[in-house]
Specification:
Distance between the termini: 48 Å
CATH architecture of the largest domain: 3-Layer(aba) Sandwich
Number of helices: 11
Bound molecules: nicotinamide-adenine-dinucleotide
Number of domains: 2
Number of strands: 8
Largest sheet: 8 strands, mixed
CATH superfamily of the largest domain: NAD(P)-binding Rossmann-like Domain
Structural class: alpha/beta
Strand order of the largest sheet: 3-2-1-4-5-6-7-8
CATH class of the largest domain: Alpha Beta
CATH topology of the largest domain: Rossmann fold
Amino acid sequence: MAEIRSVGVVGGGQMGSGIAQLVAVNGLEVWLHDSDSTALSKAHQSISSTIQSLVSKGRLTKEKGAEAVRNLKYTSSLEDFGSVDIVIEAIVESEEVKKKLFTRLDSIVKESAILASNTSSISITRLASATSRPSQVIGMHFMNPPPIMKLVEIIRGANTSDDTFNATKCLAERLGKKIVCSQDFSGFIVNRILMPMINEAFHALYTGVATKEDIDAGMKLGTNHPMGPLELADHIGLDVCLSIMKVLHAGLGDSKYAPCPLLVQYVDAGRLGRKKGVGVYKYS
Ligand code: NAD
């Protein structure tokens, strides 16, 4: 099993930028690509200022901070991924868009490279079918925010090899994460359980069971969750939550996974959560 030294990350949104920062801080070279130049420069600014703030708070030495900055390369061209050992894809949660990207990556990266997806719910086996290397495709699902959350969920597709699994596990451990392994079923472990809870919180709000504040306080104080489900939905992104519910609904075929109409309406209205300044709550 070859050691991973260089990583490509596609998608510089909340997850991709956090993953790129985590990889760079842990001493590996990382290329970050986003098809939207504004998103790429936003990711560049946010990662640089986070590293600076970690150094000024003494949580990273000056030398380690400088090394992390040197490790990071930002590119608007996927062709720069020719020498990376693994690509971690963190773009929009759409099977069609991800498949197109996997086909393209398959023709750009070197033969030995692994193609990993940070998908929250989409079948790894189906993403792998868009490539000529299904044994080197795997799910590497980081939690939000990636530099802080301790877990990486690893999902093997039907054809994922032991070598691919072992190299991905080693990378996750090198990044300081604990891993859990899930079979390739819609939503895997974490979102199979979390998203129906969030969807149910929307139903509670939609049907007037309680105010948003009381629903969140009820779950925080009543079940010891650090965030209420509606607050957490805003943190994740309501568009991401809706996409995951659609995958669960289609993939598991049970009406209990149908997205709550209020969640659908908020997304239609552009209320996507913290990243847009408004979701269930308003953020200044
Ligand atoms: P986001 O909307 O913050 O970022 C997505 C980024 O991908 C955007 O910057 C967009 O410009 C870019 N992009 C879209 N299509 C692209 C393409 N074809 N090529 C290159 N860049 C492209 O989304 P996010 O919340 O970071 O989620 C990304 C992925 O991570 C999704 O699959 C999501 O399900 C998963 N995920 C999200 C969370 C969460 O809490 N938000 C947690 C775990 C996993």
